[in-house]
Specification:
313 residues; alpha/beta; 12-stranded mixed β-sheet; 12 strands; binds S-adenosylmethionine; binds iron/sulfur cluster
Length: 313
C-alpha cells in the first residue's frame, strides 16, 4: 500500500486505551483524563478487524500502545487474535513496564514478538518525579521478567530532556552494555501538554553524540539511527526534530476511539468506528492517501490537539 508520496505503508500502531497508571509530566495531566464510554472505544473485536483489513492492504508490522496497553482488558486476547490472522505479522508492544512482571510470560505465550519498555531515568527519586505515580523497581523487575520469559532484542525508550536526564546518558550506555538492551533516546516532541514545558527540556539528540564521542554508527533501523559503544552497548537516536525522518515514514496510527491518524502531528483523522468489510478497507486506504509529506516540528508546531497518551507515541 503506497501513499501519495510513494512511501510504502506497512506499519500500524494501535492505541488500545488512552488511560494510564502513570502520569508522565510530558504526556498526561496529573489529574488524569475522563474515562470514555465503553461504546465510544474500539472493542477487542473491532481492533482485530482493523488489523485484519490493514494486513490485507499490506501491513505486516503491528505495535500495541496506549495509554498503557497492559491495563486494557482483553489485551492478551487481542494479541492472540492478531497472531491468528497471520503469525508472520511482527507483533510488538510498548509499555511503561509497571505491570510487566506479571504480564511478560502471558504476552510471550500470546505471541508478542518484541517489547519496548519506556524508561526515562535510572534514579528512583527522579523516576517518581517524571511518572508521578510509578516505581523504578517495578519496571526493573518487569525487565527481568521479560528476559526470563524469553523476550530478545528488548528496546528501552528514553525521552531525552535537558536538565532532567541528560546527565544520565552515560549511565544508560552502561545499562545497555550490562543488559543487552537497545537504548533509544527520543527527542521530546511539542505535543499539546508538552508545549507548556520549559524550553530547556527540548534538546537535540546531538547531545548524546557529544556526551559519548566513542559512539560508532552501525545501522539505520526504521526511524532510528543505531550506534555502538566501545563495550558493545547499543544506542538508537530517534530525532524527529533535529533529523526529520518523514520521508522514511511507513506508519499509520489508530486511536483507542477508532480514528485513523495519517500523521502523528496532524489533526486530520478518519473515523473507522462501526465500519467493516470493504467500507473499512476503503477508509484505511483513504487515510493512507491523506498522509502529509511531513510535519513542522522544527517550527515548534504540532497541529494535533491530542496528548500522546491518546495517540500512543
Ligand atoms: N504507556 C506506554 C509507555 O509509556 O511506554 C505506551 C504509550 S507512551 C505514549 C509511548 C511512548 O511515547 C513512550 O515511550 C513515551 O515516553 C513517549 N512520549 C510520550 N509523550 C512524548 C512526547 N511529547 N515526546 C516524545 N515522546 C513522548
Ligand atoms: Fe502513561 Fe506512557 Fe504517557 Fe507515561 S508516557 S503517562 S506511561 S502513556
Amino acid at each position: 500500500m503506497k501513499d501519495h508520496y510513494n512511501r510504502t505503508i506497512r506499519y500500524l500502531r494501535l492505541s488500545v486505551t488512552d488511560l494510564c497508571n502513570y502520569r508522565c509530566f510530558y504526556c498526561m495531566p496529573l489529574c488524569g483524563i475522563e474515562k470514555k464510554r465503553h461504546s465510544d472505544i474500539l472493542s477487542i473485536e473491532e481492533m482485530t478487524e482493523i488489523v485484519r483489513a490493514a494486513h490485507a492492504l499490506g501491513v505486516n508490522k503491528v505495535r500495541l500502545t496506549g495509554g498503557e496497553p497492559l491495563i486494557r482488558k482483553g489485551i492478551l486476547t487481542l494479541c492472540e487474535n492478531i497472531k491468528r490472522i497471520d503469525d508472520r505479522i511482527e507483533l510488538s508492544l510498548t509499555t511503561n513496564g509497571a505491570l510487566l512482571k506479571d504480564f511478560a510470560l502471558p504476552l510471550k505465550e500470546a505471541g508478542v514478538d518484541r517489547l519496548n519498555v519506556s524508561l526515562d531515568t535510572l534514579d528512583e527519586e527522579k523516576f517518581r518525579t517524571i511518572t508521578r505515580l510509578g516505581s523504578l523497581k517495578d519496571v526493573l523487575d518487569g525487565l527481568d521478567a521479560a528476559d526470563r520469559a524469553g523476550f530478545e532484542n528488548t528496546k528501552i525508550n528514553t525521552v531525552l530532556m535537558g536538565t532532567v536526564n541528560t546527565d544520565e546518558i552515560a549511565d544508560f550506555a552502561r545499562f545497555s552494555e550490562e543488559r543487552g538492551y537497545l537504548i533509544r533516546f527520543i527527542e521530546l516532541m511539542p505535543m499539546n501538554i508538552t508545549k507548556t514545558l520549559p524550553k530547556e527540556y527540548f534538546v537535540s539528540n546531538r547531545v548524546v553524540l557529544d556526551t559519548l564521542p566513542e559512539l560508532r554508527k552501525i545501522r539505520d533501523d526504521g526511524v532510528s539511527r543505531v550506534y555502538q559503544t566501545e563495550r558493545g552497548g547499543t544506542i538508537g537516536l530517534i530525532s524527529p526534530i533535529s533529523d526529520r525522518f518523514c520521508d522514511r515514514c511507513d506508519r499509520i496510527r489508530i486511536t483507542s476511539n477508532g480514528y485513523l491518524k495519517p500523521c502523528l502531528h496532524s489533526d486530520t483523522e478518519i473515523s473507522l468506528k462501526g465500519l467493516s468489510g470493504e467500507e473499512l478497507i476503503d477508509a484505511i486506504k483513504s487515510g493512507v492517501m491523506e498522509k502529509p509529506a511531513g510535519h513542522q516540528l522544527d517550527r515548534f508546531s504540532s497541529s494535533t490537539r491530542r496528548d500522546m497518551n491518546e495517540i500512543g507515541g
